[in-house]
Amino acid sequence: HEALKAELLDVALEAARRAGTFLRDGRPDDLGVAATKSSAVDVVTEMDIASEKLITGFLAERRPADGVLGEEGASSEGSSGVQWVIDPIDGTVNYLYGRPDWSVSIAARKDGETLVGVVHAPMRGETYRAVLGEGAFVNDRPARVRPAPPFAEALVGTGFGYLTERRVRQAEVARHLIPQVRDIRRGGSAAIDLCDVAVGRLNAYYERGLNPWDFAAGDLVAREAGALTGGRPGEALSGELAVAAPPGLFETLQGLLDDLGAWHD
Ligand code: IPD
């Protein structure tokens, strides 16, 4: 597995860098001003699709036998057993408004296990990466979670989905949580939120309704940095519920979210 993991990491880093540079340099300057116009949204959608094409094209060159699963529709089985899970822009709304927290998220899975995760955040000048069993890094520095604070002092990240019905429920959960913790952040890129837990910029993160491409890479980065991640108690992190925090905080937050019904709409 060692040689395979090293190769996958190399390929993921290069693919993410290429897409990140394309997105940063190719973003029209007036997009933020025009953010409310549907034409601006169309530009972002086009960039999203072009970024995914760039990534899948590069992967097809370097690892032709692998499968892919991408937010913009890329989907193939492949024959190698390796599957790439790709979010060509995570934090699309931030990208639209010219806010810096957007990322390219790329993970490689084999036999249901994520082996490699890369979250590249060009406007932060940071790339988060992890290899299963080998730790997490931000650029070339090791990434480590912040030790668990008392619950009342936790800075907790979250996100809200696009469906109105879901957002009503998410607001309910947040309403209960806000008085119990230091504060809440809504960063706008789930992949970056998970990496922020990994580097100690958040104590914890949770969200309902993510897709695999939002969390595959960030989940591994968070775990390799010392976080626990999961869904409802006893379950793996999934689209139903994603929770990430250091031991000691994780169990409390997970239990509370379960009680509050954060896992259903
Ligand atoms: C979204 C972001 C956001 C989260 C949403 C996701 P996208 O991904 O990760 O932070 O709250 O649930 O859908 O659409 O920008 O790739």
Automatic annotation (TrEMBL):
EC number(s) reported in the record: 3.1.3.25
Catalysis: reaction(s): L-histidinol phosphate + H2O = L-histidinol + phosphate; a myo-inositol phosphate + H2O = myo-inositol + phosphate
Entry keyword set: Hydrolase, Magnesium, Metal-binding
Top enzyme class: hydrolase
Keyword flag Ribosomal protein: no
UniProt-listed Pfam families: Inositol_P
A single GO BP: phosphatidylinositol phosphate biosynthetic process
Record bears the keyword Hydrolase: yes
Transmembrane segments: none
A GO term for molecular function: inositol monophosphate 1-phosphatase activity
Cofactor dependency: Mg(2+)
Positions annotated to bind Mg(2+) 1: 71, 89-90
Domain of life of the source: Bacteria
Binding site for Mg(2+) 2: 87, 214
Functional pathway: Amino-acid biosynthesis; L-histidine biosynthesis; L-histidine from 5-phospho-alpha-D-ribose 1-diphosphate: step 8/9
Family designation: Belongs to the inositol monophosphatase superfamily.
Function: Catalyzes the dephosphorylation of histidinol-phosphate to histidinol, the direct precursor of histidine.
Name this protein carries in UniProt: Inositol-1-monophosphatase
Organism: Streptomyces kanamyceticus
